[in-house]
Description:
By secondary structure, the protein is mainly beta. It contains 5 helices and 13 strands.
Amino acid sequence: MLGESPSLVKLDLSSCLHISHITPVLGIATLCELNVLGCKNSRSAKQNFPRRPNPRSLSIGRADSSKNEKHVIKYPQGLPTLKLRHDDSRAIKPSFTERMQTLVELQRDANKMRVILDRLFELPHLRVLSLRCPGPSSCEVFAEVRLRGVKLSLTRCRKPTDLRPLANVGSLEELDLSCFKLPGKGVIGSPPLLRHLGVSRCDVADESFSQIRESSTLESLDISNCKRIKDLSLIRKMGRFEKFSLVGCENVWSGLECLLKLPPLRFAYTPDADPSSFICSALQQKDVTLVNERFYYLEWP
């Protein structure tokens, strides 16, 4: 019955692990966004994804470049958004970039993938890029080839990686890092237009933010499960700071009072803080939206 829908635009089956047949929905004329990240059968080469007549977004779980990719790249006009999880492909092939010239957002998550960044940067409209970090030298490549993207997400780099070169990526506005380890004296680079920084489960210390603390453009900061961070005074000079989130950083013992000195601050998510503390009370008196309850998914207001 779902495959006969005359008006369905977006279909999310990402949590449906036991769906065995998705072919009927591929012919829905109005379907623009399809997410089958959690469907085991989406891996099959028999799924004719190009049947979708009006594609805008496609998310596939366990893609295999020798099978699914040859179906994905058959779209005559390409795709604006493509997400591949547990991608088994070893490298990004020339055929991929040749056919995907319309890509605006790309997410590839693979243990084995050998990313050739130069090929990705041949995509003229690519603005949002999410990758497992290809290696310690990748951040230098981002700067050297003048990445045009405005949002970059890097995760699970196995070797210590210095993120200092990211300061030279002039277009970057949003940066999210997870499961990273910086080398000794390594820092997170501060791009000139950076508005949002997210750091999660990273082996970083207070000095890792030495460039970020001087940022005059940062508007939101999200830090979670970074055990080595102790002092939050890094935010005291951020004149445009509006949103702040601190979760699972139990070793922080100073610097929270700096939140009181930031006039633009309007939202703070601090589930580990004592709601009756002086700082929490003072923030509420300043009409800051303060959330002390823990949420597993929190959307910024």
